[in-house]
Design brief:
Length: 142
């Protein structure tokens, strides 16, 4: 059975990472990004357009399908702060999320992060990033 995240579950997971560490702030931004956009992990900084009146991201899915997704205000703020902290330039080709060795975060790395956060928040390890794609259609737009 496929689990779909509720907004309350997403909020609990986004709040779980330790905001006192760079890794915790990266994990929070990653979880918020996955939950608000329904994206897969492989995003480059140049796919973001945070300077528009309504910030947006270009997502590439299976079969090289592209779609533009509007970014909620809380996510846009989190992404700007994250990019400032990690020294990412607005239109650079570098990956948005990287692992501990500075390389593009893979789906396995994202799965590890999600499982670690879920374990800390709920005492469960049986999770993958895919439920985040199912919650994004019910996202709040302030």
């Amino acid at each position: 059975m496929t689990h779909h995240l509720t907004l309350q579950e997403l909020d609990a997971l986004v709040a779980a990472p330790d905001q006192r560490t760079a890794r915790g702030r990266r994990d929070r931004t990653l979880l918020l990004f996955l939950g608000r956009t329904g994206a897969r992990v492989s995003i480059n900084v140049c796919d973001l357009d945070l300077d528009r009146a309504r910030p947006q991201v270009l997502l590439r899915g299976k079969g090289r399908k592209e779609r533009i997704v509007l970014i909620a205000n809380d996510l846009a703020r989190a992404l700007r702060a994250f990019m400032r902290e990690w020294g990412l330039k607005s239109h650079g080709e570098q990956p948005l999320f990287v692992g501990t060795h500075g390389e593009r975060l893979t789906r396995f790395g994202a799965t590890h992060i999600v499982r670690r956060v879920v374990a800390a928040a709920t005492n469960s390890r049986n999770w993958r990033p895919s439920p985040f794609r199912r919650v994004s259609c019910d996202t709040r737009w302030p």
